[in-house]
Each structure stands twice: as structure tokens, then as C-alpha cells.
Amino acid sequence: MSAGERSKIRFVSEGEAAIHYAIGHSPSVYDGIRLGSILLICDAGGGTTDIGIYKVRSVSPLYLEEVARPRCRIAGGVFVNEAARKHIKYQLRGSARLDNEECIVNAVREFERTAKRMFKGSEINSLVKVDSSGQSDESRNIHRGRLRIPRAKMMSFFDPLIKLVAQELQDTLVSSGALVVDKIILVGGFAESEYVYSELKTWANKRGLELAKPDGVLSKAISHGALTWHLESGVQLRVAKMHYGAETDLDYVAQDPEIHDRRTFQNILGQWRVRHGWNTIVSKNSRIRIGEEHAACFHHEFGQNDSFIVEMELYAYRWEEPPAFFKTKDGGLVDGFVHLGTVKANLTQCFEAAPYCIAPSGKKYKRLDYQICLSFDEIEISARLRWKTNKSYKYGEATIAYDV
Ligand SMILES: Nc1ncnc2c1ncn2[C@@H]1O[C@H](COP(=O)(O)OP(=O)(O)OP(=O)(O)O)[C@@H](O)[C@H]1O
Ligand SMILES: [Mg+2]
């Protein structure tokens, strides 16, 4: 793919695309949504149920911000088929004509196509064609080639999965703490089942929660929503999805509990410093123009024998307020930070142009000032270091990282 083509590709999260679809397709979803609304999107699919929480930053055009960690649980429509398969297999066992893998596979396919999709929870029996010759076998509950599955049995296929989805919703609501969810939006193929939807609706009503699903085909919500998202937001400025920044050293302050037992080092001036401090260059949600550079200043004192190759690690932070340090005291990455790349520059020329200073220890050093510049296009972030020489800037090599 050429660079030009690549720059036309834009990514949207499944959750965000699903909300665009849901809001665009249904008054019941759209109703009551206003600036600041907190929306929980629950995509109950085949194998997994995925949940995300978004805040409405603008209603028209719709702009959403993800405000909590997405969650995922193994639960969805395929497990209903697994339970049905066990039951069908049990019912057919011992039958001279029907107790074989081919018949069972066909019967489960029929179940997927018909009984599963039609089940409302009110019918006495659901019927699944198991025998194309149309014979009856009342001992197996087969009537004219169709296996009767009683309501309670059908429910037993669905209920454990519905419970898992409800439990995941409950856990998400509890763990989202201060965020009060205004509306739960349900999408995904599993939620397309009338039975599943009505059970989840009852669950939500009991708890005073608003739950809605868009009209139309829920399993296509994401692909359609991605298009709507693209068409609606195509002309907007970009908004930084995360905080972007790099490491900075901080003064060692013994009384500060955050700093207290971190490893310290002495710089050339004899000052005690700690590593792994966080310095934001571009804040989450700030408006960014494509191609515009955002710079932040850094400095470092170099001795004569130091290496002048500077390497800086770039990180992004997902959630609301970045902490003071991006690494824990034992050196692990703090939850929410993502490594983006390493920017490098050779500051030899910069060093040569700078005047010497004398440290209290008598050592000669130079203080070099440089900047990290970040710029954004639709899908990538590029970063480079720059420093001043006389009147112009000199740039180090650029590093490209994909936005995540
Ligand atoms: N009307 C319906 N009634 C019951 N189940 C349905 C209905 N329509 C689709 N499903 C079920 O939804 C599931 C597929 O949903 P969907 O297309 O959202 O999943 P997916 O995105 O492929 O899976 P995943 O998100 O787990 O990767 C299948 O198990 C299918 O049987
Ligand atoms: Mg899916």
C-alpha cells in the first residue's frame, strides 16, 4: 500500500462504530442523549461479549470519548448451539438412522437457522428438523421429522449465557465507579434474539437502568457504524485520543511518598534526581491539526566524555489524568501507559556549539536544550528531536509510531 493510500485509512473502535450505528438508526437509542451523557455499549456476539463506556463530547456531529477500560467476556450465541448440540445428541442416541455425526451436525445447523432465532420464551415447544424423511419417533420426541424441544429446555440453552452477559454488565457498572451510566446500548447477533433482549431488558428495568437496542440488523452494527462515523467525522480536526509524552527526571524529594523509595542518581551538578517522571507533550482531548508540530523542551547536562546520542522513549497514556510517574517503583509500566517508540538524535554538533560550564565538583559540562516534536496525521504519530543552532532548528531522524 502506498503512503498516500495508507494515510486514507482511518481506524475506529468497534464500540464507537456501534454507537454511531445505534444512534443513527433508532429513536429509542437516540432519545435523551445529550452532551456529557455516559453510554455503555454492550456487543453480545458469537463468542464474546465486549463492553465499552463512552462519554458524549459533542452531539452533532457525534463525537465520543472512551472513558473506561473496555471489557470482554467469553459469552455469546455459539455457546447456545453447544448446549443445543448436547441435547440433540442425547435425544438421537441409539436411533439406527439418526445417531450419527452428519445428522447431528445438520440438526444443529437447523437449530441455528430456525429455532434459535425464533425463540421468544413463550412457545411451548420449539421444533428442529432432524429427519428429512419426515418420520415420527415419539420415544425421542420427534414428530414428523421434527424434534420438539420444550420451552424450559430452550431456556436452559440461553439462560447461562444471558446470566454471563448480565454479570459482565453488572461488573462493568460497579468497576466504573464514579461514572454514572445514562444508557446501555445493546448490539451484536446474540442480542438480536428476542428472548435474550427481553431478558436483559427485564434485568435492566429491575435495576432502574435504561437499556435500548437499535432497530435493524445488530450483527452489522459495527460495519455500518464505521461508515457513518467516517462520513460524519471526516472533516473534523483530530482530537488526541490519549496523552502523549516522554520521560523526564525529577528532583528527589524525600518527603514525597511517591518519590520516597525510588532509585536516585546524581547528575553532573551533584543534584539527586529520580527517573521515570512523566511529562505530557500533548494532552488527551486537545485539538490537533494534521501536520502541526507540538514541541516540549527538555535539557540535559553532558560531560566531555558522554555519548551525545540521545534516545527518548515515547509513551501514551489512555485514561483521564496521567500520574507523576509512568513506571512503578520496581520498574514496571504503570497500567494505562503504552510504549510508542524511541526517538533518537545525535547532539554532537549541538554540544560543540554550546559554551562550557563548571560544575561544583570542578567538572566541565555543557547544558544542552532540545525539544521533542510530535506531529499527527490520521493514523500515525511521528516524533523527532530538534535543537537550536544560531537561528534555525536542526532535526534528528524521525520516528513513526502508529496511534493505538
Ligand atoms: N436473530 C437471532 N437470534 C438469536 N441469535 C442470533 C440471531 N442473529 C444472530 N444470532 C447469533 O449471533 C451470533 C453472531 O453474532 P455476531 O455476528 O455479532 O458475532 P461476531 O461478531 O461474529 O462474533 P464475536 O463478536 O464473538 O467475534 C451467532 O451465534 C448467531 O447465532
Ligand atoms: Mg462481534
UniProtKB/TrEMBL annotation:
InterPro entries: ATPase_NBD. PANTHER family: ALPHA KINASE/ELONGATION FACTOR 2 KINASE (PTHR14187), HEAT SHOCK 70 KDA PROTEIN 12A (PTHR14187:SF5). This is Uncharacterized protein. It comes from Cyclocybe aegerita (Black poplar mushroom).
